[in-house]
Specification:
CATH superfamily of chain A: Cytochrome c oxidase-like, subunit I domain
CATH topology of the largest domain in chain B: Cytochrome Bc1 Complex, Chain D, domain 2
Helix content of chain A: over 70%
Oligomer: heterodimer
Strand order of the largest sheet of chain A: 1-2
Number of strands of chain B: 0
CATH class of the largest domain in chain B: Mainly Alpha
Strand content of chain B: under 5%
Shape of chain A: globular
CATH architecture of the largest domain in chain B: Orthogonal Bundle
Number of domains of chain B: 2
Structural class of chain B: mainly alpha
Radius of gyration of chain B: 22 Å
Largest interface: A-B, 91 and 91 residues
Distance between the termini of chain B: 68 Å
Helix content of chain B: 40-55%
Order of helices and strands of chain B: HHHHHHHHHHH
Structural class of chain A: mainly alpha
Strand content of chain A: under 5%
CATH topology of chain A: Cytochrome C Oxidase, Chain A
Number of helices of chain B: 11
Chain lengths: ~500, ~230
């Protein structure tokens, strides 16, 4: 029934995922900093016996920051903003609440199982899809539960038109579901061999070149549907909300959304340039990567123009700073990616540190900045207290921005140096460097990257401290702030 | 149309799904059958090599090593003949990797020996001064899971028609019958090694991870092909 009374939104689930985002963010970035340091100082490989080597920890780092931190951030913001844009409270439906709680519980189980099994070495050895088949099944259940909660909320909505953010969350749900299922198709060997060997082991349904294509169709689009699509959904909600400005252009958001949906999936084969997949697929990957600049920049420009006439907010509201810098890094990253997807550039860049450099200006500068800004915006509304410290946010902003810049500049230099050294020939056409020469030369850049990790982690600890203080001891608010988040 | 879609979540979702599913169909399906075919003379991995491939996966060598030689002179000079699609037909999963913190390994069996690998896995800097690769000493004591490797061979034979012999078949009894062959293969590798623990374990009927791994690494390259008759 329609009533004029303001809805009391129920943030139980959003709060739970906020906690896990903080926890997994810290853990994931701590491991990341450690493995960055291991490349500069190899003795650090021996802290945890066989479980502490770079090779064993690297997938743990990627999985904890992706499925722990980022996905927690996605669920937290979803369970916060979906209620608001659909004009319906979670408390109105016992069913939705039950599904969401069950989803969170299973999510914790899966996260724990992921960490344990990966440390033990159970892995499919497919990047960002290491989890073995029992875990895959659990993850499918979690994802389906999210879909049920999402469409159940949509089903009981009061606001009939779906806001832009919801488009992106629906796309996130569908895209990840499709890609995850197909990439993880595997046969458990225990059942197929009449009960021989380990029950955890499975073998991929695809082999060789096909497996590579399916994997990078997933690997690339996991980036699309986890690191891009829902994050764009976040900024479409939180930037207008925090700034009090309306979105600059509806048409631009339409173009960007449908453009992104259509173009992104084609670009996956740019991970396989100069490999054994057919040439035409590689060329398609290159071309669509360049086309991808349009919808990516469309969203980013739409966000920047949303601030038109209100740029003064950039100087006095640190959350606006985070979000504006996030969309700027999004533009940088989505320009850098297509450059790397040009075949001649890729010949140098592929297999080098330029690639993790590219990934990190996206995930640190864009994804992590946006998620932290979103959680900061949500905190006063969820916990009914003002943000604990503005100064701390300001300091965190500059420390982390410095960290991101150090990260990608050092990796640019490292990557291009290594790529050029691999192919360098002397006057007789012989290779000039043995492989180890191209490793030892990178030491200073690896050291700078480790330092950047320490800085970013420091910033994250400041974020965590600020959030915990906001939850527990900051000044209480009597009414909900409309736009700008109050902070001391 | 778009306004209408935004008010009809079901059709909106269907629309999104169609738009995103399209590219995968066009790019992955057309070449699927061809890319599944092995090059002439390629043999499947032996059970010991499969167990070694599991060690390769478990210690996640792909974090730093590729198995994909690109068609550039600088790469063929360094690593040998560039990689062909059909050479990967029995690789489940593919292990191309995406980062070369260390060198490519697709043909490492052509130019490294058991002895070299043994020294290298024990202490990388002893053979490559300046190496930043960690030592993998635990592989000298951990036992490789050859039974699961056998299960994998049975699975790919029965489901994906990988050409293994008739002695690879489902069931525990078949495995017990096959096991001595795996141990014999492991003994042949261990005979070229000097680590005493490794030799003792193999003599006692267990296969240390490093033995399986070296068998796998040695197989990469020319030994992936059937012996010429």
């Amino acid at each position: 029934m329609q009533s004029n009374a303001a809805l009391e939104y129920d943030y139980t689930i959003a709060k739970l995922y906020t906690y896990t985002a903080i926890l997994f963010g810290f853990v994931g970035m701590l491991i990341g900093t450690l493995i960055a340091a291991q490349l500069a100082f190899p003795d650090l490989n021996y802290l945890l016996g066989e479980y502490g080597t770079f090779s064993r920890l690297r997938p743990l780092h990627t999985n904890v920051v992706i499925y722990g931190f980022t996905v927690s951030g996605i669920f937290a913001t979803f369970y916060y903003l979906a209620q608001r844009v659909l004009k319906v409270s979670m408390a109105e439906s016992k069913f939705v609440m039950f599904i969401a709680k069950l989803q969170f519980f299973l999510y914790l189980v899966a996260a724990t199982a992921l960490v344990v099994t990966e440390l033990m070495g159970y892995t499919q050895s497919k990047e960002y899809a290491q989890m073995e088949w029992p875990l895959d099944l659990l993850i499918v259940v979690i994802w389906v539960l999210w879909g049920i909660a999402m469409f159940a909320l949509i089903g009981i909505r009061r606001e009939k038109a779906l806001y832009i953010s919801m488009w992106y969350f629906i796309a996130c749900f569908l895209g990840v579901a499709m890609l995850y299922l197909f990439n993880n198709m595997a046969v458990p060997t225990y059942f197929a061999s009449g009960g021989v060997g380990s029950i955890m082991h499975s073998v991929s349904m695809y082999s060789g070149t096909n497996d590579a294509l399916v994997q990078w169709w997933w690997g690339h689009n996991a980036v699309a549907f986890v690191f891009t699509v829902p994050i764009v959904g976040m900024i479409y909600y939180f930037l207008p909300k925090e700034s009090g400005q309306s979105v600059y252009s509806y048409k631009l958001s339409l173009l960007s959304f449908w453009g992104l949906m259509f173009v992104y999936l084609w670009a996956g084969s740019h991970h396989l340039l100069w490999s054994t997949v057919p040439d035409w697929m590689q060329t398609m990957g290159s071309i669509f990567s360049v086309v991808l600049i349009l919808p990516s920049w469309g969203s980013a420009i739409n966000m920047l123009l949303t601030m038109k006439g209100e740029w003064n907010q950039l100087t006095d509201n640190p959350l606006i700073k985070f979000m504006v810098l996030a969309s700027t890094f999004y533009m940088l990253s989505t320009l850098e990616g297509p450059i790397q997807a040009v075949k001649s550039v890729n010949a140098i860049a592929h297999f080098t540190d330029w690639i993790p450099g590219h990934v990190h200006d996206g995930v640190l500068g864009w994804v992590a900045f946006m998620i932290m800004a979103a959680l900061f915006h949500m905190a006063p509304r969820m916990f009914k207290r003002e943000i604990f410290s503005k100064n701390l946010i300001e300091a965190q902003f500059w420390i982390q921005t410095t960290a991101v810049v150090l990260y990608f500049t050092s990796m640019w230099i490292a990557g291009i140096t290594q790529g050029m050294m691999w192919r360098a020939v002397d006057e007789y056409g012989n290779l000039m460097y043995s492989f180890i020469d191209t490793v030892t030369v990178l030491h200073p850049y690896y050291a700078i990257r480790a330092l950047s990790g320490v800085l970013f982690l420091t910033g994250f600890v400041m974020f965590a401290y600020n959030m915990i203080k906001t939850m527990t001891s900051a000044k209480e608010l009597t009414e909900e702030p409309q736009f700008r988040s109050p902070m001391a | 149309m778009f306004h209408w879609l935004e008010k009809n979540p079901f059709f909106f979702a269907v629309g999104v799904f169609l738009v995103i599913a399209f590219a995968g169909l066009v790019e992955i399906l057309p070449n699927f059958a061809e890319a599944s075919r092995p090059v002439a003379g390629l043999r499947p991995y032996t059970v010991l090599e499969l167990a070694g491939k599991e060690v390769y996966k478990k210690d996640n060598c792909i974090a730093c090593h590729s198995q994909l030689i690109r068609p550039f002179k600088s790469e063929t000079d360094r690593y040998g003949q560039y990689s062909l699609s059909g050479e990967y037909a029995y690789d489940r999963p593919f292990l191309w990797g995406s980062k070369r913190t260390g060198p490519d390994l697709h043909r490492v069996g052509n130019y490294r020996t058991t002895d070299w690998h043994e020294n290298h896995m024990w202490e990388p800097t002893s053979v490559v001064p300046g190496s930043i690769m960690p030592a993998y000493k635990h592989q000298f004591t951990n036992v490789a899971d050859i039974e699961t490797a056998y299960a994998e061979a049975v699975t790919v034979k029965n489901i994906f028609k990988t050409p293994y012999g008739d002695d690879i078949k489902a069931g525990k009894e078949a495995w017990e019958a096959y096991k001595p062959k795996v141990l014999a293969e492991a003994k042949a590798v261990a005979a070229q090694m000097k680590n005493k623990d490794v030799k003792d374990m193999v003599a006692a009927g267990k296969v240390p991870e490093v033995v399986a791994l070296i068998a796998y690494l040695n197989s990469l390259g020319a030994k992936r092909y059937e012996a010429k008759k």
